[in-house]
Amino acid sequence: MMNDTILVYPYNGSLYAYNVTDPSVAEPVPPDNVITGDGWENPRLVTVVNGKLPGPDIIVYEGQDVVVHVKNGMRSEGTTIHWHGLPQVGTPWMDGVPYVTQCPILPGQSFTYRFKAEPKGTFWWHSHVGTQRSNGLFGAFIIKERTETSTEDLILQINDWNHDMYSDMEIIKDKYRGYDGRIPWPTKRSLDNSGLHISPIHAGLINGRGRYYDTNGTDNGAPLTIFNVMLGTKYRFRVIGTSSTNSFRVSVDGHTLTVVASDGYDLDPVDVESFVINPGERFDFEIMANQPVGNYWIRGITLEKGQNHRADAILHYINAPASQPQTSRQLCTATKPCTVLNCPFTYYPENYTECVKLDKLKSAPSGKPAPIFEPGRSKEYFLNFGFPPSVNGRSFDTPDVNPLLQPKEWSSPCTSPQCGDDHLCKCTHALEIGNNDTVQIVFFNMGRGKGASHPIHMHGHSFYVLKMGYGQYNSTTAEIIGDNPDINCTGPGKDSKKSFCTNATWRNSSWLNGNVPNIELNHPLQKDTIIVPTGGYVVLRIKADNPGLWNMHCHIEPHLLGGMQMLINESFADIPKAPDWIPDCFSYPASPYRMGLIKNCQTNQSNQNDALPVGQVTTENHPGLLIAILVMQIIMMLVVSFACFRQRNYSTCAVCKGHDEPGISLEQQ
Ligand SMILES: [Cu+2]
């Protein structure tokens, strides 16, 4: 680690210069300007914005116009920024998905995101390219209500941390498994004995800080994040699951957590001892600082079997001594069992510890009811997420253009015989929906590709969670023993072990046409990311009222990279016209369609070039935060305003910007 130019090392919660031999008598180096990560002292790449890990918090009020200038300061990678959870109504080209809604911002280039901040809630921003997010390119995005509140806000971003995380290497590890010497890595197991992403992790971080534990369980004493609280005050923790691959169980010693919102939407408050947050999810909880003045552990533990990967932070009551907490986690007893919200399995394998499933919660009274399913008008789809990374046996073929704005220039249809129930295919898989339809989607996780639970994130919508079904479990061992029987994954007479389950349906046909029993229609939660448990399913609905081309994918980053993603092609003809300055992208030679268009547009080409944004783009750099030898830095600036960005209007070649019809070959499921 380095503080600008001084090499430092961690000891007993502080940092010291490398030439200090006895830290017990030396003055520590302030940790504020050092990216410490887990205190790992060897070189490690981080990819960060404005020199911070996590990047800067973006906190705005509901309804404000947000303008973010992004300059890619990396030397060898393109990037985009996705605004996770924001529906981007009317601005689908600002969704930040490379080769779906925009071209990547190339090294040295800039791009200005401009969109409306709505709805209120806890969101975040992150790179959508490669493993940049896993390497640190993320931050909080909070949209506050324009009302006074007596509750203090605290932001807590929790993620796993690796000492080596590189895009192509992750895919290779995923495909061929990693080796130490000639010994393959052991299969990682979750607490229910189902699988986990194969790559090992090295630590957990809260707001960019954590500790590396050696094999003996001894930590390296790296500095941790400290949340200062005042006795008698109520706090709202906005917890963001910024993990790359792992889920965390979060708790605070000595304090009951009142969970009040998830993924930006309020819910009927529920008191729990802890909750599980998966990559991409958010949970807001409130605590009352009503315990004896002191220091308390905030704990995040992974759900890995036989591992000790923790993301710890300190709840520090003002006026308490600055010392490490000595507290223990809540004792779970027969008379006072611990409740864990959002387990990805049915039983938590600890004594007197009970899982509370997410679909047992209700939205706040202000929440909307689920859209009505009208037989004949509404549609239902079954989508199976599995390995090799795919959806319904289709591994995502990423376009080399921006299909949102260049729909006629890309075609990679998922057609037979290329795709089948028993063989994987690679194509641009898209679900075509529109006309204000109610769409019921069943995410499930069965067949030959099952093995791990997947947190699935939908862009463009916060879906209504109607029901969750889990696999079958041994109530004594808490281990998974079979799939949920509600879904007939393969059709009659087929072996599910050989099937990608592309023809799944409800085992009981009376459940079709929106008639699944025991679904929550009046007060369903609204979420944009949800765990699809292995062997289980999630029933959700959306109203197709947001025209766009929306990415939907597993939020475990290597699974996304490997192809566990698809598109929702929603009301394409109704997508509003994008600003002319948004550039097209294409390979060389370009598609035949473009080759023809270029010929037609030559006379206007200079005008097109002039149409790039030339408003008040400024750059700002905050150097000084360095962790290792290799640090890539993105420079990003936020300007929140209502009219701070001038844009010149030029005439452009209309046919080159044609996005008025869905020329892209997207398959209807
Ligand atoms: Cu996944």
TrEMBL record:
One of its GO terms (molecular function) is copper ion binding. Residues 44-147, 157-319, 415-569 form the Plastocyanin-like domain. One of its GO terms (biological process) is iron ion transport. SUPFAM superfamilies: Cupredoxins. One of its GO terms (cellular component) is plasma membrane. Keywords: Copper, Membrane, Metal-binding, Oxidoreductase, Transmembrane, Transmembrane helix. Pfam families: Cu-oxidase, Cu-oxidase_2, Cu-oxidase_3. The chain crosses the membrane at residues 625-645. The keyword Membrane applies. Signal peptide: none annotated. PANTHER family: FI03373P-RELATED, MULTI-COPPER OXIDASE. Belongs to the multicopper oxidase family. This is Laccase. It comes from Dreissena polymorpha.
